[in-house]
Amino acid sequence: MQSETRLIARYSETDQMGIIHHSQYVNWFEVGRTDFIKKLGKSYNEFEKEGLWLPVIKVEVNYKSPAVYEDAVVIKTRIKEYNGIRMTFEYSVYKEENGSLVVFGTTEHCWTNKAMKPISLRKAAPNYHGQIETAYKEQ
């Protein structure tokens, strides 16, 4: 499964050169990831209420071409790796106008409880584990 999320680059995300500041792309990855998770049927908020956390443990960002204020972009998000405890999301951000690649990268996560102890989603939430595994295998 691949999810597509559209957003418009905001003025507050630009730097002195008038381009999107490099740090903002990690925020855009989060927008894509939370939308992806929600499209599977449960929001981050619902997971957290159930005591399940998905903290980021690694981020990789590769910059290709700049985005600027008011660019419409599409964030394509998919699961790159999943083993029931850890999962890696892969992101590609494109300008909607011409399809040019702006940035791509990954975030690695680990399912934990509130105490930040790693847990197996397979055991803690078997139904949702099945949905994630299906989305991962459908690619």
Automatic annotation (TrEMBL):
Pfam families with a match to the protein in the record: 4HBT_2
Keywords carried by this UniProt record: Hydrolase
Gene3D superfamilies for this protein: Hotdog Thioesterase (3.10.129.10)
InterPro entries noted in UniProt: 4-hydroxybenzoyl-CoA_TE, HotDog_dom_sf, YbgC/YbaW
GO molecular function: fatty acyl-CoA hydrolase activity
Family in the record: Belongs to the 4-hydroxybenzoyl-CoA thioesterase family.
Protein name as it appears in the record: Acyl-CoA thioester hydrolase
